[in-house]
């Protein structure tokens, strides 16, 4: 082995912190036989069809306490149930219908004033479950029917038909359950890390060999290999161009993910559906107050990163709708650890273009004792009515074509989209 | 028609398809044709037909498509010995892996990856002899792994030892433990033990690093997980529910009679024992939390002075008293002082519950056999667990004597950590002049691929099925890691030059060189198409001189490509 060459590569590898390697320009084009059906293509200038734009689905894992986010400020039952962790009405950012927004979400309130943010309270799944897994599974499969084993976004992609290798992106390391299925989603952590550490002298041969190694192999990895190889050149160009976001994202993986999505959207790579996970919402203890505690610590970066995403996208925000959802709301009454245990009705947050802004949508059953479901916010708005309407308006799938996406539910729009 | 395309695809996971167009035939499928009837008429398949999945991995596996349990052709499903089971089971499942040497299958499943020495060792001892050794890990000398482990002194420190050298809430000890665990995975000769340690650490997941574990993580992993990994689950559960790491992580330390916190009480039922399909109620969850009140940690404010910092204490004043009932467990729970005893009785009841046996047996079968394992095997493992008083060894004994295990060659896909570790093992990375730095590099590779040891952030542990790990970016991370291990880029470790791995090279032909590298790294040759891929990389002429084809410098790339191949991605 050429020790000198290897030493040079090793130096690059180590100097760049195990993650990055610079290349000379001019890699050969890789032919990937496996892409014969054109489910995915690497063409950057993907011709936009009738449906345009991007749906970004953020999953707030752990069960976000909706009553700390979209606060029914006028409801006396709330202050009674939450003497230690209630948000005083005077501090709330005013919305509509008696609701106020947690002040840590100020960037969202600015979007609200522009008609680019709204929310739906008392969102529920058909199965009442206080198990994280069951409730997440129900949401991510898009319902509870026996037929809906794929992720709901996999069925959305099925309805959309072929697109580019970037048409479905899950940010992170594991595939979001809502994208699980056959539609060849791409999972990645960052654009700059999406690179193969081989020298330019052997790059074309290496990618050709990798394609051939998986040709004819009956395994989902073969599809992912084809997607990866077909996308390398495009990503390389994107990485080489660098990225200066038009806003500052908070540090951490979720902010990084949104920044990378903004980058992909602005590069016009045909991104239609994207998923981001944000954890840390299982606040059994120390939810805290306006002055500190876990809720403020969770909401501040959430508001900042969503605000940065909107600012960074600029005019392109009109082509993007973001839905942030969580598996369940939390119990109305605080527990004695200054937290809340698992509840039921939750809140969905929506931002971006195409929204019917200026109002909070959906029914609100209130917090009177007889309105509660075993001590929890009752479910009043089916999550599929929100998602179905958003998908239809944002991605151009007719309401009549939503049947296969939500096989056990007839979508009735709440009017969240214009 | 579309449906049959799906069926063919998933039955033949990891097989060579009929032709080069097979991949293209897969991707456009009109699944509306078979909505609602995916699981009809599949006798013997362990997939539940109704909407509710028992857990996340089952749900993912179902979404990945229709995977039949591997067909089994054997004279019996349970043999007297593992060796007889290996010899008496025909491998009929389509796979690209060679099926004529059960030792390769065993070492892909029961270890973090075969090495030439390990394969020779199992052949020498025989399958039963090797397994008997593995089930008594304390008797196996383990000098290289001990050397790796010793480079991370905080990995064996007790909480007081950590507190003595680490700033409060600093992650240093938790990070060291994760690195030391990875060092053991790479170098330990007690491989089955290490596989089960990782299994249980995920089953009772306390994220490491994670909140609340800064001083107690090493103790958690050593005193709860490692101490019981091949022992009884009942003992492990009892130890877990009186360890500060678990009590803090799921908020039981803050749960009191006046202020019951449900977090641990619920996850104990759902994740650690019976599972959601056991049909417990919200009342059961509440009672489960009542029973655990009083179990706290010595530095919880009011508890100061009741022991050393970060020690488990049972505080009767915090225990909820009164009759409790969870599933079929009930107790008067009349006195505060008796609460600890009630709790331990409850934990042993849960550990011995048939639903717990099913959950754990299924999880073990998913780990060892296939993503949707055959139900008869799961039932057999569950029975062994119950008959033996929750013995892990008894389950493993039955597993390796079962035909289903030996029939499932190539039906699992390596997760990123398993890929990272297996690559380090097969190229023979050894401790070098800076073990800490080298192991940190390997850990970073696992981190970059999203699978740092013990790092899953939620209480349910890392997923264990292929459908959850599909990732285009993740493939690149692994391919880059393969170049790093082959090239010796992990500074601080020693490694073999790629050409030194294959004897007599580079004097032969390109074809011979490629075959030797495949044999050295995979214990088998490639199929013609895959072989042609490597020969193509070296110029396309199998009969050409390998020296003239440039293996002196391209050997590095060839070895990397062998590890990138689908053969290495399967286990």
Commentary on this structure:
- The complex is a heterodimer of chains A (about 425) and B (about 575).
- By secondary structure, chain A is α/β, with parallel strands linked by helices.
- Chain A has helices spanning about 5-15, 75-80, 105-115, 130-140, 150-160, 205-215, 220-240, 255-265, 295-315, 385-395; strands at about 55-60, 70, 95, 100, 115-125, 170, 185-190, 215-220, 275-280, 320-325, 345-350, 380.
- In chain A, strands 7-6-9-1-10-11-5-12 form an 8-stranded mixed sheet, with helices on both faces. A 3-stranded antiparallel sheet of chain A has the order 2-4-3, with no helix packed on it.
- In chain A, a hairpin with a 4-residue loop joins strand 3 (about 95) and strand 4.
- In chain A, helix 3 (about 105-115) crosses helix 9 (about 295-315), helix 6 runs antiparallel to helix 7 (about 220-240) and helix 8 packs parallel to helix 9.
- The longest helix of chain A is centred in the middle third of the chain and has 22 residues, at about 220-240.
- Chain A starts with a helix and ends in a 23-residue tail after the last helix.
- The model of chain A is unreliable at about 15-50 (pLDDT under 50).
- Chain B is mainly α and about 575 residues long.
- Chain B has 28 helices and 9 strands.
- A two-stranded antiparallel sheet of chain B has the order 2-3. Chain B has a two-stranded antiparallel sheet with strand order 4-5.
- In chain B, helix 22 packs parallel to helix 24 (about 470-485) and helix 25 crosses helix 27.
- Chain B is globular.
- The two termini of chain B are about 30 Å apart.
- Mean pLDDT of chain B is about 90; it is low at about 1-10 and about 20-50.
- The interface between A and B is large, with 100 and 111 residues.
- Strand 8 (about 215-220) of chain A pairs antiparallel with strand 1 of chain B.
């Amino acid at each position: 082995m050429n020790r000198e060459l290897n030493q040079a590569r090793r130096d690059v590898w180590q100097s760049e912190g195990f993650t990055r390697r610079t290349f000379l320009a001019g890699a050969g084009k890789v032919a990937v036989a496996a892409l014969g059906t054109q489910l995915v293509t690497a063409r950057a200038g993907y011709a936009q069809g009738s449906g345009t734009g991007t749906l970004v689905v953020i999953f707030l894992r752990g069960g976000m306490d909706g009553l700390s986010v979209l606060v029914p400020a006028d409801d006396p039952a709330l202050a009674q149930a939450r003497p230690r962790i209630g948000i005083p009405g005077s501090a709330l950012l005013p919305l509509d219908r008696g609701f106020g927004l947690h002040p840590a979400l100020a960037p969202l309130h600015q979007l609200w004033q522009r008609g680019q943010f709204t929310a739906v309270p008392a969102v529920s799944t058909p199965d009442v479950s206080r198990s994280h897994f069951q409730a997440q599974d129900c949401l991510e499969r898009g319902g509870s029917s026996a037929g809906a084993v794929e992720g709901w976004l996999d069925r959305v992609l099925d309805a959309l038909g072929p697109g580019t290798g970037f048409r479905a992106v899950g940010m992170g390391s594991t595939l979001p359950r809502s994208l699980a299925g056959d539609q060849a989603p791409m999972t990645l952590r960052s654009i700059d890390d999406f690179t193969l550490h081989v020298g330019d002298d052997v790059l074309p041969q290496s990618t050709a060999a990798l394609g051939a190694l998986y040709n004819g192999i009956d395994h989902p990895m073969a599809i992912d290999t084809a997607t990866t190889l077909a996308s390398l050149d495009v990503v390389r160009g994107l990485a080489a161009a660098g990225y200066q976001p038009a806003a500052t994202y908070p540090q951490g993986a979720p902010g990084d993910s949104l920044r990378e999505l903004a980058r992909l959207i602005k590069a016009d790579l045909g991104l239609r559906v994207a998923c981001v996970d944000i954890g840390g919402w299982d606040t059994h203890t120390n939810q805290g107050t306006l002055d500190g505690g876990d809720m403020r610590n969770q909401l501040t970066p959430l508001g900042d990163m969503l605000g940065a995403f909107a600012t960074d996208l600029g005019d392109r925000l009109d082509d993007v709708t973001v839905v942030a959802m969580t598996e369940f709301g939390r119990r109305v009454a605080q527990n004695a650890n200054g937290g809340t245990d698992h509840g039921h009705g939750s809140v969905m947050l929506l931002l971006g273009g195409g929204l019917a802004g200026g109002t909070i949508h959906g029914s609100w059953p209130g917090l009177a004792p007889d309105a509660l479901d075993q001590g929890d916010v009752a479910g009043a708005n089916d999550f599929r009515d929100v998602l179905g309407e958003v998908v239809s308006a944002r991605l151009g799938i007719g309401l009549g074509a939503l049947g296969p996406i939500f096989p056990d539910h007839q979508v009735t729009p709440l009017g969240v989209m214009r | 028609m579309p449906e049959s395309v799906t069926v063919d695809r998933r039955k033949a996971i990891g097989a060579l398809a009929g032709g080069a167009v097979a991949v293209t035939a897969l991707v456009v499928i009109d699944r509306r044709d078979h909505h609602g009837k995916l699981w009809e008429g599949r006798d013997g398949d362990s997939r539940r037909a109704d909407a509710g999945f028992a857990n996340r991995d089952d749900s993912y596996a179902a979404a990945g498509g229709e995977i039949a349990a591997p067909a089994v052709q054997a004279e019996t499903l349970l043999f007297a010995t593992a060796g007889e089971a290996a010899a008496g089971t025909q491998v009929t499942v389509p796979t690209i892996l060679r099926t004529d040497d059960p030792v390769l299958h065993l070492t892909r499943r029961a270890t973090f990856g075969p090495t030439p020495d390990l394969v020779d060792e199992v052949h020498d001892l025989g399958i039963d002899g090797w397994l008997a050794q593995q089930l008594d890990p304390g008797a196996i000398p383990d000098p290289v792994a001990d050397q790796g482990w010793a480079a991370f002194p905080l990995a064996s420190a007790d909480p007081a030892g950590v507190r003595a050298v680490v700033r409060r809430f600093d992650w240093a000890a938790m990070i060291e433990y994760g690195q030391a665990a990875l060092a053991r995975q790479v170098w330990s000769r007690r491989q089955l033990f290490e596989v089960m340690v990782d299994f249980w650490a995920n089953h009772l997941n306390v994220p490491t690093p994670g909140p609340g574990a800064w001083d107690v993580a090493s103790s958690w992993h050593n005193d709860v997980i490692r101490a019981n990994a091949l022992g009884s689950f009942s003992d492990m559960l009892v130890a877990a529910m009186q360890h500060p790491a678990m009590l803090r992580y799921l908020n039981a330390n803050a749960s009191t009679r006046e202020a019951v916190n449900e977090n641990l009480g619920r996850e104990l039922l759902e994740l650690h024992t019976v599972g959601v399909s056991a049909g417990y109620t919200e009342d059961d969850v509440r009672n489960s939390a009542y029973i655990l009140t009083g179990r706290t940690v010595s530095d919880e404010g009011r508890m100061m002075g009741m022991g050393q910092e970060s020690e488990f204490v049972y505080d009767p004043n915090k225990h909820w008293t009164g009759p409790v009932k969870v599933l079929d467990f009930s107790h008067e729970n009349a006195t505060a002082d008796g609460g600890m005893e009630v709790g331990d009785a409850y934990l042993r009841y849960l550990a011995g519950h048939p639903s717990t046996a099913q959950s754990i047996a299924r999880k073990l079968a998913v780990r060892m056999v296939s993503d949707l394992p055959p139900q008869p095997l799961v039932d057999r493992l569950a029975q062994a667990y119950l008959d033996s008083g929750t013995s892990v060894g008894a389950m493993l004994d039955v597993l390796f004597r079962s035909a289903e295990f030996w029939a499932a060659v190539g039906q699992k896909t390596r997760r990123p950590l398993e890929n990272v570790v297996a690559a380090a093992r097969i190229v023979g990375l050894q401790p070098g002049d800076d073990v800490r730095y080298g192991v940190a590099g390997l850990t970073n590779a696992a981190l970059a691929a999203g699978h740092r040891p013990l790092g899953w952030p939620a209480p349910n542990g890392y997923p264990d099925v292929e459908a959850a790990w599909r990732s285009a970016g993740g493939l690149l991370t692994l391919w880059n890691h393969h170049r790093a291990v082959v090239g010796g880029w992990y500074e601080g470790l020693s490694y073999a030059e790629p050409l030194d791995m294959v004897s007599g090279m580079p004097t032969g032909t390109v074809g011979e060189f490629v075959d030797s590298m495949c044999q050295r790294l995979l214990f088998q040759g490639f199929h013609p198409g895959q072989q042609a891929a490597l020969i193509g990389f070296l110029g396309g002429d199998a009969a050409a001189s390998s020296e003239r084809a440039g293996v002196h410098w391209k050997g590095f790339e060839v070895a990397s490509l062998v590890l990138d191949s689908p053969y290495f991605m399967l286990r």
